[in-house]
């Protein structure tokens, strides 16, 4: 009897999952500018959009990926076959020394649309308040399910990131758009769209003052700083930091979407900061690219970029807990990277390199330069993703950090 009861417990647990409601059989399609079309059914908002079609190899943390500002303007294809099984949590948190107002990476869904093989019709998690479909509909984001995401991913790997069109309802029966109709978000300054418009403070009573240039910051970057007792001032991406730099103990440059060439003004201002200021500077993702451009490196567009929570990087130098020669698993979301050149600009050296494609994953100032500047292409603070590199410059306390 007891054995039969134990065997039945998993079945009971599954029965308690919250039913999200069936996905209505509204036709939907994904058209690629390269000529391929994939037909399925719609979930989320019943509207059609254009965007840049990319894929993520993340197995979990779909809510964090979708709210990451780095996905602005992109049609996000999840390679994991089932998405939505643990629903969506409430996205409200306090503004205090432990949090920054949101649970996820921003207040809204940032991706233009979502493509999944199978969207969950039931979800089960003690923090979940709504289904993935309901969340997308509330934020006016279309989704397509019932398509072969393996085939889409193979295409994107072979031909590179491709412009796309999500067509829903009556639009799905229409022919694919002409090539000239596709919208390319890379032509726009996406950073300017997602960056804060006015400066604001977090944890003003913190023990050390950090300035943040916001290129499209994930909330967990700011959360990681305030939890280490930093008083954080967040500035717009093109703010003249040199006018206020002596008020701060360090400068942080965040992640962000799109082409770093649109942010050349920030790179030129940072070049002056690097020449005249001797306090620590650290950058993540777009911030890393801005540091590299300020140092004299060029940025280029990758074929399909790196998006996922399983990217291996090789440390070429030691710093803090990072040991040269070790491979670390990292979380990434980027289409552009810095060019690896020989020789490197004077005063700089490569910090990490990608084990899959040999792209530059980090740079740092040399010991001889007398500077304390680091940049990494990946997200050391995870959310979501592994914690292998969380102490690369974000130690357990700020006394262990670059700052």
From TrEMBL:
Ion transport in keyword set: no
Class of this enzyme: ligase
Entry EC number(s): 6.3.5.5
Coiled coil: none
Matching SMART domains: CPSase_sm_chain (SM01097)
BP term (GO), one: glutamine metabolic process
Keyword Kinase in record: no
Catalysed conversion reaction: L-glutamine + H2O = L-glutamate + NH4(+); hydrogencarbonate + L-glutamine + 2 ATP + H2O = carbamoyl phosphate + L-glutamate + 2 ADP + phosphate + 2 H(+)
Keywords: ATP-binding, Glutamine amidotransferase, Ligase, Nucleotide-binding
A molecular function (GO) term: ATP binding
Pfam family, one: GATase
Annotated Carbamoyl-phosphate synthase small subunit N-terminal domain residues: 26-167
InterPro entries named in the record: Anth_synth/Amidotransfase, CarbamoylP_synth_ssu, CarbamoylP_synth_ssu_N, CarbP_synth_ssu_N_sf, Class_I_gatase-like, CPSase_GATase1, GATASE
Superkingdom of source: Eukaryota
Pathway annotation: Amino-acid biosynthesis; L-arginine biosynthesis; carbamoyl phosphate from bicarbonate: step 1/1
NCBIfam families: CPSaseIIsmall (TIGR01368), PRK12838.1 (NF009475)
Subunit structure and binding partners: Heterodimer composed of 2 chains; the small (or glutamine) chain promotes the hydrolysis of glutamine to ammonia, which is used by the large (or ammonia) chain to synthesize carbamoyl phosphate.
PANTHER family: CARBAMOYL-PHOSPHATE SYNTHASE SMALL CHAIN, MULTIFUNCTIONAL TRYPTOPHAN BIOSYNTHESIS PROTEIN-RELATED
Family: Belongs to the CarA family.
Protein name according to UniProt: Carbamoyl phosphate synthase arginine-specific small chain
Lineage per the UniProt record: Eukaryota, Fungi, Dikarya, Basidiomycota, Agaricomycotina
